[in-house]
Write a structure and sequence with these properties.
Length: 93
């Protein structure tokens, strides 16, 4: 593990859920709720540990995977893209 990987502070599924709740609070048109908690857990786990022998190594690769998995898998009822963007903004320094 390189020095960059050791210093990364990962977001948890609960952190991302909190980010989603803030997005919902600021937009009356956004429906609250999580439709697939497993997809959210998967995104976090994949960013940290990888799957199928592929581990994202750099901070940018990890951020990309988090963005991709939240956007594509739609773990929330609404606001997935906004949550993904805000999550990687907070995740990357």
């Amino acid at each position: 593990m390189d020095e960059e990987s050791e210093s990364i502070r990962y977001l948890s599924a609960a952190d991302i859920h909190d980010i989603h709740e803030l997005i919902v609070e600021t937009s009356a048109e956004t429906t609250a709720g999580i439709s697939s908690p497993g997809d959210l857990e998967y995104a976090v786990e994949h960013m940290q540990e990888g799957h199928f022998g592929q581990v994202p190594e750099s901070l940018h690769e990890k951020a990309f995977q988090l963005l991709r998995l939240i956007t594509a898998n739609h773990p929330f009822v609404d606001g997935n893209k906004r949550t993904a963007l805000m999550s990687i903004r907070i995740f990357t320094p």
